[in-house]
Design a protein that fits this description.
Layout: H1 2-9, H2 15-30, H3 38-53, H4 64-85, H5 90-101, H6 104-119, H7 123-131, H8 143-172, H9 174-190, H10 202-226, H11 229-239, H12 248-258, E1 261-264, E2 267-269, E3 272-274, E4 278-280, E5 283-284, H13 287-320
Parallel strand pairs: 1-5
Antiparallel strand pairs: 1-4, 2-3
Length: about 325
């Protein structure tokens, strides 16, 4: 009944867009919940499953145990969200799920701390806050290195923490957002290419890559439209394949080109220096580029919502012959 009334009240705007706007408004108002966040509990569940399924010798030579653990961790929650979405409280439930799935304000807050520290010439604080956003060793980074690491994180997580969740919510509702966010969390926990997770974590890594295949490129396209379009497209075409992540590559390359900043370069991970390529634009990275990256994500988000609204509206009209 509630959903029907709201649907009648927003005939010009597709109802799924209304849900997205409300969820994003809640994220802006409340930010990330500090207590009892469902993903914290899910993380404990995932750790428990990994300790049980990844101790068998087969987990070192087969993807089977990792795939079974992934299915046990994800499928019941997706099924539960399907059921709850169909209840009378489904409208509220779907908004709540999307609010918990997106991390726009949290991402911006973390990056803002780095920007403020670097702007105050407090490099130690900048390194500390940057280390909370990235997996590389930040202890010896200079100001430009801290700004590069943070800007890269904003651009990449703009896709992972915002666009991916919104895309799957727009496509499948709350079950899609749950599927995406849990798969993304398992990739972050299990998707390492080391002795412990090489086989066990392979399903989590590949399934996350599959779920991000379309939204990452949609995000990169929105970055291009929201910034210096020709620079972004040129950077995407030139550098995306040089970067290690099949989905992060297009996102970061397009984003760096859109704000004309030079990112990448050698970085230390777990004590080992990796000779990563430089990519993007011409300007050396400065703290101001962190702010520019945040603004690019917001402009891209507006473009995504506008495009989806137009597609949903015209698609409904094409199928039914009726306006929303």
């Amino acid at each position: 009944m509630l959903q029907s009334r709201l649907f009648q009240g927003f005939r010009i705007v597709p109802i799924v867009v209304v849900k997205i706007l409300i969820a994003l408004s809640l994220d802006q108002w409340l930010g990330e919940t500090r207590r009892w966040h469902p993903l914290v509990g899910f993380g404990h569940l995932a750790a428990n499953l990994e300790s049980r399924f990844n101790r068998h010798p087969a987990s070192r030579t087969s993807i089977g145990p990792g795939l079974i653990a992934w299915l046990i961790a994800v499928v019941p929650w997706v099924g539960l969200s399907v059921w709850l979405s169909a209840t009378p409280a489904g409208f509220v439930f779907e908004i709540a799920v999307l609010y918990l799935a997106v991390g726009r304000k949290s991402l911006f807050q973390h990056s803002q701390r780095v920007y403020q520290a670097l702007s105050s010439n407090n490099l130690e604080q900048g390194r500390y806050h940057a280390s909370r956003m990235v997996s590389r060793d930040c202890s010896s980074l200079d100001q430009s290195g801290c700004a590069r690491a943070t800007t890269e994180s904003v651009l990449e997580n703009g896709s992972d923490s915002i666009f991916g969740a919104l895309f799957w919510f727009a496509l499948l509702g709350a079950p899609g957002a749950v599927l995406y966010r849990l798969a993304n969390t398992l990739d972050a926990m299990w998707g390492y290419r080391n002795h412990r997770f090489l086989w066990f974590g392979a399903p989590a890594a590949h399934l996350d890559d599959l779920l991000n295949l379309v939204p990452a490129r949609l995000c990169a396209l929105c970055y291009a439209f929201a910034g210096r379009t020709s620079n972004a497209i040129a950077s995407w075409r030139r550098f995306a394949r040089q970067l290690s992540s099949p989905n992060g590559g297009p996102v970061m390359a397009a984003g760096a080109g859109a704000i004309n900043v030079r990112l990448g370069g050698p970085a230390v991970y777990h004590g080992v220096e990796q000779d990563k390529p430089y990519f993007g634009g011409e300007e050396e990275c400065r703290p101001e580029h962190i702010v520019q990256a945040n603004r690019l994500v917001d402009r891209s988000l507006l473009i995504f919502i506008l495009l989806f609204s137009i597609l949903a509206y015209t698609g409904h009209w094409f199928v039914t012959g009726e306006a929303l």
